[in-house]
């Protein structure tokens, strides 16, 4: 085995939509996958309004899929809030874990305890139009109007104007 440690600081991660789908494969019975991995050398992180969805399907009960996996302590996060940490694993529901920081964080309350902050984050199915090819949320998505405004970001990935008081979490402002 090996390890990857990236040292970086002052990273702002805003309005992203990540969808990991498909099989985890059988090459490793202990594989871990994650929509966002934060290395042990990271610092001064501002992570808001992101959809981190990992619905990869395991082939072994020892495999795990995470929405966020943090190898760095919660002190590295200057702000972490208004994110959707969604996981599912149809092979083994217990292998779908919303977060890791020091230990597996099995629900939103455990994410809030481990990471701190996250008072306005959710662990809901984002209801993407298509988790493979169209990450725009459907009508009724919990992402809609659930974010927080970020200065200087006034439009979404396709140029639609963001709501100035309650923007949508993720890359798209409006539902399909």
Give a verbal description of the structure.
By secondary structure, this protein is mostly beta strands. The model has no long low-confidence stretch (mean pLDDT 95).
Mean pLDDT: 95
* Element-level helix/strand string: EEEEEEEEEEEEHEE
Q: Using the CA coordinates, give the radius of gyration.
A: 16 Å
Specify the structural class. mainly beta
Strand order of the largest sheet: 4-8-11-12
User: How far is the N terminus from the C terminus?
Assistant: 44 Å
Major sheet size, sense and barrel closure: 4 strands, mixed
Count the E strands: 14
Q: Helicity level, as a percent range?
A: under 10%
Instruction: Using the alpha-carbon principal axes, give the shape.
Output: globular
Short description:
The protein is mainly beta and 176 residues long. It is 5% helix and 34% strand.
Helices and strands in order:
Blueprint: E1 7-9, E2 12-14, E3 17-20, E4 32-38, E5 41-43, E6 45-48, E7 51-54, E8 64-70, E9 77-81, E10 84-87, E11 96-101, E12 104-105, H1 108-115, E13 128-130, E14 134-137
Parallel strand pairs: 1-5, 2-6, 3-7, 4-8, 6-9, 7-10, 8-11
Antiparallel strand pairs: 11-12, 13-14
Features of the shown structure:
single chain; mainly beta; 14 strands; 176 residues
